[in-house]
Structure prediction request, 691 residues.
Amino acid sequence: MAELTLETPVQYAKRAGPRRAEQLAALGIETVEDLLLHFPRRFDLRKQTQPIATVEAGDDNVTVAGQVIDCKEHSYGSKPFFECLLDDGSAEIAVKWFHGGYLRNQIRPGLLIAVSGKVGAFRDLPQFVNPSFQVIYDASGVRLDRDELLPVYPAGGGLTSGIVASIIKANLHNAQSLIPPWFDKAYLAQRGLIPRPDAVAAMHRPEDKEQWSRARRRLAYDECFLMQLGVAIVRTRERHRPAHALKFTEEIDRHIRARFPFSLTNAQDRAVREITSDLRRTRPMNRLVQGDVGAGKTVVALHAALTAVANHRQVAIMAPTEILATQHYRKICQYLDGSQVNTRLLVGGQNATTRNRTLAELATGEVHIVVGTHALLSETVKFRDLALVVVDEQHKFGVQQRTGLRGKGYAPHYLVMTATPIPRTLALTVFGDLDVSTIDELPPGRGKTETKLVKEKDLPKIIDFTAKKLHEGQQAYFIYPLVTPSPELELTAAQDAYEELSAGPLGEFGVGLVHGQMPAERKEAVMTDFRDGRIKVLVASVVVEVGVDVAAANVMVIQHAERFGLAQLHQLRGRIGRGRDDATCILVASPGNPIAQRRLDVLTKTADGFQIAEEDLRLRGPGEFFGTKQHGLPELKVADLIEDFELLRLARRDAFAMIEEDPDLAAPHHQQLRRELIKTHGLRLGLLTGA
Ligand code: ADP
Ligand code: MG
Prediction:
């Protein structure tokens, strides 16, 4: 048989074959390499253990392994003892150690431990008394002992973990010869990393906890490194394209600021300084401005736009929806009322005459600022001299569009705004190719937003409260997580709520409904009615998250709040309190989930978006963080962006240094990395094509 390579289809691997190969494909394993990189989820004890359910009082020499779900200490009486409860999925069993107080530091809930010894009985239930024990995993899931390791693999598609394990085991000896080294010895030594082939082998068959940790660290480094290599290439490439340096003088600054009926906050000033110093360079700016809803990002972006206009160049401002584009457009027109600056709106719904006129005026340069949706990305949109692109709420666009837009025409300066405060780990990954400005201060004179956590049974009171506010001329949002009723989740659907609220005491104020499944025009029509005050109550699924600006809307009721992420709730809440009036955000949590309620408590205590975002990321992990699949975060198998932050930083530094020295990875000793990069991230980032 021909020699195996990493690219060889898995059917030719030992113990595989065509039928197994089909089953392996269901697990995402197509090649020998995929097989070798299919790592165990965890390790179990080999055979000696028996299910707890089969343990009987009177048995001797019994070993079970299970998770510690509870610990207790009884210190009274003549025989104080330490007791824990073990659960292995089959049953629970109590384990008692007399005079075991010293164990309090060794045995904690969450650990997986094995206990061996004699089984006695207590009130007719079997229990261990003074058994020997061994902690199998520490709190981070690291295996602590040896010999009895049984790797447990992600299984499925007709394959059990055991079959997967046997196929991998039969091929693992190939790892040494097949897996190429990425770095030389000195490089590894400097960073305390073990060779990659060793790491792959040890991930499957570690000798002990230390070896497994070292293997994991090496592979996590590799993942972070490859990702940052991609980031570094995008960034370096962007930075090496020429851009127009924009002149920025005190006079220009004064003229621009005169357009705003307020002075900028310190945080806005800082962002403006960072932006203008970028704009003066002959390299394109690539900057992310992040700040809570209402922090004044639009104003900062407009400052940048007017700097470009003062240089007789054009600006494109993109928003994710027509209603947001329209809102930006109106706002900008207000600020620019009576000025020479020509601003146009370009969205899908316009008639051909308007559209064609705008297109013509963009081509001749008569239009200075165009505001629109992704319609601006269309081939037919030609600029005479585009110098700046501003993208609002960029995470809704995804990385693909981001690079697409940047690739269009001349290299413009590029400014992204986002209202999702981004924890620093994610800033280095999803937005790792951008510089970041942070607006961490709200403009003065805003009303305060108070957040309350209430129970479902308080709903009548909430309705009364809302009715009172509506009588005072305010408006209210009612937010629901799902649109159609789902009996499993027992969620009230927005549709039901709409009917209920319309029929109830709020009906007289006019109730509207928007949700994700509605056609865009209907949705925008309802939002427009709400914005213009024709209806006072808006029942919505999460669509309002992206940002209508309604100053009179100062009540928000969020149903089933525990179903939302913290960052998402914080963003939703940012929709109210936009004017001078105080606002009230009411989080309605379903009963019976104390952990979820505690989680929500953070929101009642702080309005600091970054603190909330960090907390959210910690609780839910990066994948869920953005609440959308479009976040552009590469999938990581081994690395954990939160736990491995320092490793990520190291990898980032190394990757950027490498790209600085060898921007196209052309050096012979970088060819392996180049191949890995194309394989792993090439399609995603559109990098190194034609390589
Ligand atoms: P964001 O885009 O960050 O959500 P905006 O730029 O839309 O915020 O600003 C929110 C509101 O605050 C707008 O009505 C804007 O006019 C106002 N605003 C912005 N900056 C200031 C400031 N420095 N002082 C007072 N009001 C401000
Ligand atoms: Mg905004």
